[in-house]
Automatic annotation (TrEMBL):
Taxonomic superkingdom: Bacteria
Domain Solute-binding protein family 3/N-terminal: 30-259
A Pfam family reported for this protein in Swiss-Prot or TrEMBL: SBP_bac_3
Signal peptide (UniProt feature, chain positions): 1-20
UniProt xrefs under InterPro entries: Quinoprotein_dehydrogenase, Solute-binding_3/MltF_N
Protein name: Quinoprotein dehydrogenase-associated putative ABC transporter substrate-binding protein
Keyword set, alphabetical order: Signal
Amino acid sequence: MRPLFLSALIAAAAAFPAVAQVADLRSHTQFRVCADPANAPMSMQDGTGFENRLAEQFGQWLNLPVTYSWFPSGMGFITRTLRAGTCDVVMGYAQGDELVQNTNHYYTSVFGIVTRSDSPLATVDHLGDPALKGHPIGVVAGSPPATIMARAGLAADMRGADLFVDRRVKDPVGLLIDGVRDGSLDAAVIWGPLAGPRVKDDPDLQFVPLLKEGAGPKMFYRITMGVRPGEQEWKRELNSLIRRHQDEISTTLREAGVPLVDDYGKELLP
């Protein structure tokens, strides 16, 4: 959002000055990735995130070793990594803001509802469903679905998780999912790439994508890589790799449990 990360990046976009000259910053001997060391299940310093696996694939296609510049996502992330010249690409960056230059998108994903599989709310597939009222529902504060939930009269039922946190010491999405698992929450509305991989192997939990919202902020977003403004040749090289290896990229995402939709918000089945 990536809309725990997505919302933070969009909120921070106006805070950083442009870099006048970037042409000499890109490494030609390493695939240097800017990443959060504890943004499970996306990027992890131990290499277990699905973005780590994607980075390894891109490194292989470029015939370059993968190295990382680690910094917690949120305020200051782009300034201290990509714009400081310590790395050359941000994996999993939402399309549409001006903080970085976006490559072509390599997947589109969606917010959804996590419930217990045996819950009375297990059939809910849109935030306007009256069945949600009166049930404690977790949501990341400031994320797009929080706006729709408030408009749907669910403000009293919302249990917010913090957006700007250091996930090395606090895991807001994990806490929401744990709340659904232990019954302290009846549901949680979470960005799909954060929720899907965490629940895909749990028979007690399910993720239902929000594909039927008719008003308010959209629930699906195109995900790109971010590079420095002005690095057109580097962007074109990555775009070429995305185009030629899209099937392999999609397979990696599906294996990780990331829910995929097309550019119009229609679910893509395996």
